[in-house]
Design goal:
about 625 residues; two-stranded antiparallel sheet; 24 helices; 8 strands; binds 2-acetamido-2-deoxy-beta-D-glucopyranose; binds zinc ion; Angiotensin-converting enzyme; protease
Length: about 625
């Protein structure tokens, strides 16, 4: 009895000491969050100066500032070890400490970290500076990916011209950086181990706070795959009609240069030659936008208007002052890949985008503004929580609005679409167009990280790195390069995010959950009713719905302060990621495609590719 009392008192004393420590820890974290925001702001300014104006001076400055921040983070991680945070009562304090204890690349030694930064700059600037010669005029050699090469890849229907640009680009954006990429993988692995992860794959997956996340993605993908194969088979069938049997084989993988996109990640730019009902109108308002004198500024103003119509936050004056929304014409090199930036002050948020006046860029504008809305919604939180519930959430916000903008209903409302009759055939055309972006993207996104996971985990022999990439692209997407590639080539870094060390599963997650968000937002807006054929999911417009806006506000204002299932629950009451909403959206198309492919005797699936040879 007495012993028990002593034990009890001892526990009490310990608890009291802990309570006292928690009070101190709280104050420590408050100061630390402020200091981190201040330092990250300086770091972000240097990155912005570099990304919008690539030269030796801005690169040097950026790397210096990053090295300084890394040094500070390392000191912090030592300090943090003095706190017994794992035993704290407060879940909030524990969560903040856990997040702060992740060091990332800053865990590397000073020399390794400096080399890492140089390696990354080399890859990023190589990607940003790629220039190729004109196919028809070999004296004109200043064509950049954005806008010249993309213009050809999306519009040309000449297989030889497309093959030429494909090869030029992959040689210069991919193969050229193989040595740097090999070093990058080594340093990535070193950093992961220093953070007590088995590899960089686990570092990336840790962001999703769920041990079974990789398996969940695989399972959802397996559910969607039959629909993907129907789309794939139908596109091959229609491409054969357009290009003939010699260019497109009946049962083989699709030659990727014919798909309207350098990486074959989305195929909507070839909708004009593959859409189900060629005589029915296809929603493409690009020409109308040009005709009506649209400018990048107007496109961003429209995006801002969409958010405010939902009672969400208006873009602050700083956004308009400091963003770059058109490609500068003064000849400087810059990273044109569209991006949204948070400077961790109040209201200093920016976008950098070489905007052109097209329908797909209008969607990109909304995508980037989704990031900005997230930044603004969580800017009241401590620094560690000023990020998405998981990386996929951040990517999904703007896309939900884009889904709405792309509907005939909305495009008519804003005067870009006129006299459009949405009958059953036009509806199938529209769903097919959306599938060319949203369904086609799923296997692409998955392979970007399955590939890098496997390299980080050391599962692929270096002598086979390039063909391992094409094998995954073949297995998951059923596509192949236009020319035979070997291990003398190296193609993965020809995708921006691979050259720039950006995790990609976020986009796969986004493309799945954005349909969960969209479906719920549409129901809240009274725009979708599964029992009412007058209110189908694929023509739902959430513009002007304060109810849908409130759901976004509830989720976005949480930032990363709670695990992502809590954030999802704040939006619509659900707690799991599921492929059900995306399947529901495309159900009418699935039914139509299956019948149509049987009717036309279309082969489903694909035979093995012989377009990569390792020796
Ligand atoms: C680009 O960077 C250079 C070197 O730091 C600087 O002199 C120049 O003013 C910058 N250009 C712009 C437009 O910021
Ligand atoms: C450029 O094209 C011309 C005409 O086709 C050809 O004679 C010449 O050799 C080419 N030059 C290069 C550098 O490829
Ligand atoms: C990794 O684990 C070792 C040994 O358990 C430990 O000393 C070290 O602090 C850990 N590092 C991090 C960054 O958690
Ligand atoms: C708009 O949002 C504000 C702040 O989130 C909220 O207080 C207000 O009730 C909302 N208005 C409507 C009409 O929902
Ligand atoms: Zn994004």
């Amino acid at each position: 009895m007495k012993l028990l009392l002593v034990a009890l008192l001892a526990t009490l004393a310990l608890t009291q000491a802990l309570v006292k420590e928690e009070i101190q820890a709280k104050e420590y974290l408050e100061n630390l969050n402020k200091e981190q925001a201040r330092r990250t702001n300086i770091d972000t300014e240097a990155s912005w100066a570099y990304g919008s104006n690539i030269n030796d001076e801005t690169e040097k400055k950026k790397n210096e500032v990053s090295a300084e921040l890394a040094k500070f983070l390392k000191e912090v991680s030592v300090e943090i070890q003095k706190f017994n945070w794992r035993s704290y009562e407060s879940a909030d304090l524990k969560r903040q400490f856990k997040s702060l204890s992740k060091l990332g690349y800053a865990a590397l030694t000073e020399a390794d970290y400096a080399e890492f930064l140089e390696t990354m700059s080399a890859m990023e600037s190589n990607f940003a500076k790629v220039k190729v010669c004109d196919y028809k005029d070999n004296t004109k050699c200043d064509l950049a990916l954005e806008p010249e090469i993309e213009e050809v890849i999306t519009k040309s229907r000449d297989p030889e011209e497309l093959k030429y640009y494909w090869t030029q680009f992959y040689d210069k954006a991919g193969t050229a950086v193989r040595p740097q990429f090999e070093r990058y993988v080594e340093l990535n692995t070193k950093a992961a181990k220093l953070n007590n992860f088995t590899s960089g794959a686990e570092v990336w997956l840790d962001e999703y706070e769920d041990e079974t996340f990789e398996k969940q993605l695989e399972d959802i993908f397996t559910e969607i795959r039959p629909l993907y194969e129907q789309v794939h088979g139908y596109v091959r069938y229609r491409l054969r009609q357009h290009y003939g049997d010699k260019v497109v084989p009946e049962k083989g993988p699709l030659p990727m240069h014919l798909l309207g996109n350098m990486w074959a990640q989305q195929w909507s730019d070839i909708a004009d030659i593959v859409s189900p009902f060629p005589d029915k109108p296809l929603v493409d308002v690009s020409d109308e936008m040009v005709k009506q004198g649209y400018t990048p500024l107007k496109m961003f103003q429209m995006g801002d208007d969409f958010f405010t119509s939902m009672n969400l936050t208006k873009l602050p004056p700083t956004f308009w002052e400091k963003s770059i929304i058109e490609k500068p014409t003064d000849g400087r090199d810059l990273i044109c890949h569209a991006s949204a930036w948070d400077f961790y002050l109040q209201d200093d948020v920016r976008i950098k985008q070489c905007t052109t006046v097209t329908q797909s860029q209008l969607f990109t504008v909304h995508h980037e503004l989704g990031h900005i809305q997230y930044f603004l919604q969580y800017q009241h939180l401590p620094f560690v929580y000023r990020t998405g519930a998981n990386p996929g959430f951040h990517e999904a916000v703007g896309d939900v609005l884009s889904l709405s903008v792309s509907t005939p209903k909305h495009l008519e409302k804003i005067g870009l679409l006129k006299n459009f009759v949405l009958d059953e055939e036009a509806r199938i055309n529209q769903l097919f167009l959306t599938a060319l972006d949203k369904i086609v993207f799923l296997p692409f996104a998955f392979t970007m990280d399955k590939y890098r996971w496997s390299l980080f985990r050391g599962e692929v022999d270096k002598a086979n790195w390039n063909c391992a990439f094409w094998k995954l692209r073949e297995d998951y997407s059923g596509i192949e390069p236009p020319v035979v590639r070997t291990e003398k080539d190296f193609d993965a870094p020809a995708k921006y995010h691979v050259s720039a060390d950006v995790e990609y599963a976020r986009y796969l997650v986004s493309f799945i959950i954005q349909f969960q968000f969209y479906k719920s937002a549409c129901m809240k807006a009274g725009q979708y009713d599964p029992k009412n054929p007058e209110l189908p999911l694929d023509n739902c417009d959430i513009y002007g719905s304060a109810e849908a806006g409130a759901a976004f506000h509830n989720m976005l204002s949480l930032g990363a302060s709670k695990p992502w299932p809590d954030a999802l629950q704040a939006f619509n009451g659900e707690r799991v990621m599921t492929g059900k909403a995306i399947a529901e959206y495309f159900e009418p198309l699935r039914v139509w495609l299956e019948a149509e492919n049987i009717k036309n005797n279309v082969h489903i699936g694909w035979t093995a590719s012989d377009k990569c040879v390792s020796y």
